[in-house]
Amino acid sequence: MSYNSSTEANCVCSEDIKKDEESNFDLVLKEKWMEAQKNEVFRYILNIQDSKILEGKYHFLVQLNIDRGYKRRSPESIISMNQPFNEKDFNFIKLVSEEQIMNLNNTDKDDIIAINASPIEYCHSLLLPQRCKQLPQLVTKHSLVKAVELFSLSLSSYIRVAFNSLCAFASVNHLHWHLYYLKWRMLLEYIIQVGIGLGAVLKQPRDNGILQPIAYFSRKLKLTESKKKAFHLECLVIKEAILYWQHCLIGRNFTVLSFSLIIFEALLFMIINNYLHKS
């Protein structure tokens, strides 16, 4: 299935895709990105010609983007993860004004968002933190904070912020993060990492509100359990952790924290199903 960026829709969508929301940040970013495309600032018009989901439990999404392979800027020669910044190579100080689409509350334009002239997805842009300091492609505290701030500015469920380091497909050795929208649920949004054991942490709030670990629980999976799906194991570890710490929990209100959306969706389904049976 082909995809052109002007459609504002991805080439594939997961079956449980939901209607997306937009904040002012999302609207401005999309408007500026499409305006740059209209003004032919990009090296090519995004055109994903085909896509597929790879077989296997991880459901990796692969896309055919021929233009990026042939029309993108030649990658910088990267030989070390600690390679210093080189002002003679291409860097984001050299961006023309038409590529710079958003200034993040700086009069000196040191933190900006620019288009990625060789996009891989809809609204593919670059977060360029402390651009004028000419930092190499290594995560800094400031850049990480800026990346998190972008998440808080967006209401979209499909905004993605990604970092590719040196020797891991970074093509420019100048600090940057990737920003784009992808209407496909990522692996970490619906699956837990299944290994050889179960584990949980018991925490209690300190006076300042920060949760402090006070006990740990873990055990090795049985052979039959290791073949179970992630949903089963997530439920199993919650049940066993509560039983293990029942002497601390009986008579108290407590909260179960899970990184898996599967649990939330299952509980929501049970609540709705129970309501329908009663009505």
TrEMBL record:
GO terms for biological process, alphabetical: DNA biosynthetic process; glucose metabolic process
**Which keywords does the record carry?**
Membrane, Transmembrane, Transmembrane helix
Transmembrane annotation, as ranges: 256-276
| Keyword Zinc-finger attributed | no
Q: Which gene encodes it?
A: LOC125384634
Domain named GDPGP1-like N-terminal: which ranges? 25-180
Cite the source lineage. Eukaryota, Metazoa, Ecdysozoa, Arthropoda, Hexapoda
Name a single GO cellular component. cytoplasm
What InterPro entries does this protein's entry cite?
DNA/RNA_pol_sf, GDPGP, GDPGP1_N, RT_RNaseH_2
Q: What's the protein here called?
A: GDP-D-glucose phosphorylase 1-like isoform X2
In what residue span(s) does the Reverse transcriptase/retrotransposon-derived protein RNase H-like domain sit? Answer: 196-256
A GO MF term: guanyl-nucleotide exchange factor activity
